[in-house]
Specification:
By secondary structure, this protein is α+β, with helices and mostly antiparallel strands. Among the domains are: 5-100, DNA Primase, Chain A (Alpha-Beta Complex); 111-234, DNA primase DNAg catalytic core, N-terminal domain, CATH 3.90.980.10; 380-433, no CATH class; 453-571, DNAb Helicase, Chain A, CATH 1.10.860. Helices cover 55% and strands 10% of the residues. It has 28 helices and 16 strands. The strands form four sheets. A five-stranded antiparallel sheet has the order 1-2-3-4-5, with helices on both faces. A hairpin with a 5-residue loop joins strand 4 and strand 5. The longest helix is centred in the C-terminal third of the chain and has 28 residues, at 544-571. The two termini are 55 Å apart.
């Protein structure tokens, strides 16, 4: 292996594959296993099985499988070492040997020059903020209670009014006009380039890797121009993939166990001012699939704190539903119809008031019920019926009888229905049979899954027993020697070699060994091994009788294949009369064998 074998084993020993996958995907329990929508193909229904017992995952549609480390490698495109460290972080396992593992960024030739250009400009903006001209910007930041530590933390700056001088500075640093334009910093006007942010205070936008990818620039004072100027969409900058402060918040959130999702920069700064660093902002965009993916990776409670006005509350309901549908744990700051944002609360009422505000958290269900009760009273019976219909799936998922009764009473209060009437609606919903998924029916009834040739069945059974029992490995080595199926043969031979070196091994060990091997077909082998491990239709006991029966089938079927191949070769190029004679002799020999 590339590094200490015992370290990998220790990490996997303390790892929980369900927790690892849950850090990236919503999972649902089914019996003793778990299911998730497979991220490695266009999956519309959960087709990826996760086994806590075996500590492996397997998609039964695209075939992708492996252990916790393999999942992280495939999902995040990390090296094996980086994935080992990531699994340890997710599972809160600490080992000094992990400290020497550092993520190596893949070099993107197009990204590098843009990142360097934006970095140099960020430093220039910070310099400008502390210049005589930058005093106006410094006064603005001070008026918003953003001290030197916060300004440094978030790389805040100021853009000189002479936008052409900014371009000259970048050119002197070695950046071409093409790079400057591609980075979204300037475009030619009247034949010349000038900084689009000139005369404004600067809020750099940093991606999850810690690189500046764009800017938001605010005007100072009143004027006809736009209050904010944001970087245009570029190769690096796309607001739908970015959460402000995510680069700082991700580790803080894992420690705290939660993360606040806010509206804007100032709200993030307000939370920092009272010591809460696990917070991000959406920068004025609707929540996207990429935002949800970033939040899911944290595997923490999401605390929504959006504007308290009517549009803000509607947005909160929408975002909360999207997060819940994605399987994330979400609670909402109860703003009680207040239109103050965190920055205003802190500046007007002080840190104690803001802390109290942020810690008054309610469930998504309570928020929606309060919304309809306080801000959007239902007028017609159709509206009331529609609300109950929307809540039926939510209520069906509640396991606590006390909690269910509470919500039934609240819903009854809003709609005018009695709790008993709503309870009867739930009973009816439970009694209706669920529609089966058509794709799943097709998959389960695929004839290739139902019927295996006799030889393949026997080889598959023996290989399964080899994965479970050392006696079967020794039997294969002594009595079989090789499988007809090429994939089974490669696995069996690898397994013999591995078992000779590791007397006691578990499924995850073998898969880890393959993950670190140089075999070109290792993904195919891992997929097949995972598939075998997860099968349930095998004998519970591996005894000599079972092994002997499997050998008999394998030997006879391999002999049959050999005879058929020999027959085909002997018939090749013969005239019809000679072919008839050869076939007659072949059939007589076969009949004698049967007697």
């Amino acid at each position: 292996m590339a590094f200490d074998d015992s370290l990998v084993k220790d990490v996997l020993k303390h790892a929980d594959i369900v927790k690892v996958v849950s850090a990236y995907l919503p999972v649902i329990r089914k019996g003793k296993d778990y299911l998730a929508k497979c991220p490695f193909h266009d999956d519309t229904n959960p087709s990826m099985h996760i086994s806590p017992e075996l500590q492996i995952f397997k998609c039964f549609v695209c075939g992708t499988s492996g252990n916790a480390i393999g999942f992280v490698i495939k999902y995040e495109h990390l090296s094996f070492k980086e994935a080992v460290k990531k699994v340890a972080e997710i599972c809160d396992y600490h080992d000094p040997r992990l400290d020497d593992i550092h993520q190596t960024k893949v070099v993107d030739p197009k990204r590098g020059p843009l990142v360097k250009c934006l970095h140099d400009l960020t430093v220039y903006y910070q310099y400008a903020l502390n210049s005589p001209e930058g005093k106006a910007g410094l006064d603005y930041f001070n008026s918003r209670h953003l001290d030197a530590d916060l300004r440094s933390k978030f790389l805040l700056g100021y853009a000189f009014k002479d936008g052409k001088a900014t371009i000259r500075f970048l050119e002197e640093k070695g950046h071409s006009l093409k790079t400057i334009e591609d980075a979204g910093l300037a475009s030619p006007t009247t034949g010349t380039y000038t900084d689009r942010n000139a005369g404004r205070v600067i809020f750099p936008i940093i991606d999850a890797n810690g690189d500046v990818v764009g800017f938001s620039a605010r005007r100072l004072g009143d004027g006809q121009e736009a209050k904010y100027v944001n970087s245009p969409a570029t190769y690096l900058f796309n607001k739908s993939t970015l959460l402000y402060n995510f680069n700082n918040a991700k580790e803080k959130a894992r420690i705290a166990g939660y993360i606040y999702v806010l509206e804007g920069f100032m709200d993030v700064y307000a939370l920092y001012r009272i010591g809460i660093e696990s917070c991000v902002a959406t920068m004025g965009t609707a929540l996207t699939e990429e935002h949800i993916r970033l939040l899911r990776m944290l595997n923490v409670e999401i605390r929504l704190c959006l504007d308290g006005d009517l549009p803000g509350q509607k947005a909160t309901m929408k975002v909360a539903n999207e997060l819940a549908n994605a399987g994330l744990n979400v609670r909402i700051v109860d703003n009680q119809n207040s239109t103050k944002d965190p920055d205003e609360i802190l500046n007007q009422d002080g840190p104690i008031a803001l802390n109290a505000y942020l810690n008054k958290l309610i469930s998504r269900v309570d928020f929606i019920l309060n919304y309809y009760k306080n801000t959007n009273p239902l007028q017609t019976s159709e509206q009331k019926t529609q609300l109950i219909q929307e809540f039926v799936p939510v209520l069906l998922g509640i396991r606590s009888q006390l909690e269910l009764d509470s919500y039934l009473n609240k819903l009854a209060d809003i709609t005018g229905y009695t709790p008993e009437a709503i309870r009867n609606i739930l009973k009816t919903a439970r009694s209706k049979p669920k529609e089966r998924d058509f794709k799943e029916i097709i998959r389960q009834n695929n004839p290739e899954r139902k019927v295996l040739r006799r030889l393949e069945f026997a080889e598959r059974e023996l290989l399964y027993q080899m994965l479970q029992n050392p006696e079967a490995v020794a039997f294969y080595e002594q009595k079989i020697g090789g499988f007809y199926d090429e994939t089974y043969r490669i696995i069996a031979n690898y397994l013999v070699e591995y078992a000779n070196e590791h007397k006691d091994f578990v499924p995850v060990d073998l898969i880890t060994s393959l993950e670190t091997s140089e075999l070109a077909e290792k993904d195919i082998l891992i997929n097949k091994i995972s598939e075998l491990y997860l099968e349930r239709n095998h004998p519970d006991v591996c005894n000599q009788e079972l092994l002997d029966n499997l050998q008999q089938v394998i030997d006879s079927e391999k002999e049959r294949i050999f005879e058929n191949d020999t027959l085909e070769q002997s018939l090749e190029g013969k005239d019809p009369k000679e072919k008839a004679r050869i076939l007659s002799d072949f059939n007589r020999r076969r009949l004698r064998k049967k007697r």
